[in-house]
Write a structure and sequence with these properties.
mainly beta; 6-stranded antiparallel beta barrel; 4 helices; 12 strands
Length: 172
Amino acid sequence: MIREENVYKIGRIGKPHGIGGEVTLRFSDDVFDRVNADYLILMVDGILVPFFIEEYRFRSDEVALMKFEDIDSMDRASELTGCDVFFPRHLADADDEVFTWSQIVGYVIVEVSADKTLGRVEAVDETTINVLLELSDGTLIPAADEFIEDIDHETRRLMMRLPEGLVNLSTR
């Protein structure tokens, strides 16, 4: 059984493309292209299910046309429409050279100078030039490189040294 803490969201399946079972994949992380992965994981009716990749091609910087094994018709492909797409953390963590913000959703932020846990990352906002980490309580933390001390993939902790005023705002 695949557990949610062992994967992270990279996109969502759109509508079928053509009649042969291809689907559109709107992605926020192209890790499936950088890491040698045979499968992606889709949330189908509340269950994480692996789907083996037959082939894919990029349509744009945010959309790929994906063909999964055993999905051979438009009807079968349409059953996947709207499914969230996830990637296995262990495969992404093996690629130490490339790190994406999507990977740290679910990590705990620890402020090292105060030795205080600030919360769990629920989402990452990359819509502006300043990337923000949204914690479970709604707090936003800037994801500036100069604030990051260490990232521990094994314990899923992001060690940060934040300016004093920001820490006070963050710990309400």
